[in-house]
Amino acid sequence: MRVLMSGGSGFIGSALVLHLVEKLGRQVLNIDALTYAANPLSLARLEHDSNYRLAEGDICDFSFVNAAFNKFEPDAVIHLAAESHVDRSITGSSAFVRTNVFGTQSMLDAARLYWQGLPVSCKEKFRFLHVSTDEVYGSLGDDGAFDEASRYDPRSPYSASKAASDHLVHAWGHTYGLPTLVSNCSNNYGPRQFPEKLIPLTILNALEGKALPVYGDGLNVRDWIHVEDHVRALVEILDRGKIGETYLVGARSERTNLQVVQAICDSFDRLRPSWGPHGRLVTFVSDRPGHDRRYGIDPTKVERETGWKPRKAFELALEETIAWYMANENWWKSIRLDIYQGQRLGLLP
Ligand SMILES: NC(=O)c1ccc[n+]([C@@H]2O[C@H](COP(=O)([O-])OP(=O)(O)OC[C@H]3O[C@@H](n4cnc5c(N)ncnc54)[C@H](O)[C@@H]3O)[C@@H](O)[C@H]2O)c1
Which tens digit of pLDDT belongs to each residue from 57-68? Predict the structure, then answer.
């Protein structure tokens, strides 16, 4: 199977490329603009693998995307390229609307033109899987969980742009008959995540003995899933999902932000006791504007229809993630020096 992916040099994308190429032996063309969020080191070990190629370029550039489709002739598309950090979307939304909305439209149009020209047998097998977030559903109260019937209620510029992209994908399926699938997943963690998100930022700050910022009262809840569990779910949805359907992906691991930061501190106390207790580094800072209080996913549908189940237990896999960052300083050192030093983003003036 030949898979055209967008955003394969980012956090989830690189885990998916490695899974598709190394574990499943599929051929992958990764189209990626290599923005600040991409790290070429994530896929360096595939440099000489004949099943992997990078086409550097912008998904908003229709002629580039169109040429990539015609040259590579994919059997399937997995669309991940996006601006992905809520705090950055609060500081400046233009790149989010551009890439997440216009970029998705460009991917869909290129896919549609290519798909329409395929012979019937290939046309029937073709799939376009759009990778999205549970944040499109807004914020939950103390009880319940999002499922496929939940109402769209995006509340940040990031989630609004992802909601728009979901609607475009459904519209291309409905109007043109493009065989689309949408997955909406909860918060991911694991190796190779850009250190602006809560878990890698906290790990690197703890490693360097810096303050560990916690937004507001620290009681906002996220439903954590290991990136390798997410990646396996995406492959199952691509291979077994029903055309036109949405699948919510999560691992039933809700934690408050404070619990996550405390779990990282507990791990560091075990891994590096001489610096402990790391909990003394926790620092409460002003809340994110419009901060959604709680996300939680009911993954029954994806489990029932594809047989997928998460395998990683949160606290254990979190400690593995910490160990990965400790062992892979070469992956993050130049990011911390040259690209992003961990300063607060997304505050209103
Ligand atoms: N990280 C999460 O917890 C999470 C959860 C659910 C869904 N998602 C979704 O999964 C996808 C991947 O998320 P991630 O965390 O890996 O993101 P990321 O920020 O780590 O990576 C994004 C990738 O997209 C590329 N990119 C950005 N703009 C581009 C453009 N205009 N043209 C081509 N490439 C471009 C970047 O270079 C980068 O490689 C996103 O669509 C995101 O909305 C993420």
Answer: 999 999 999 999
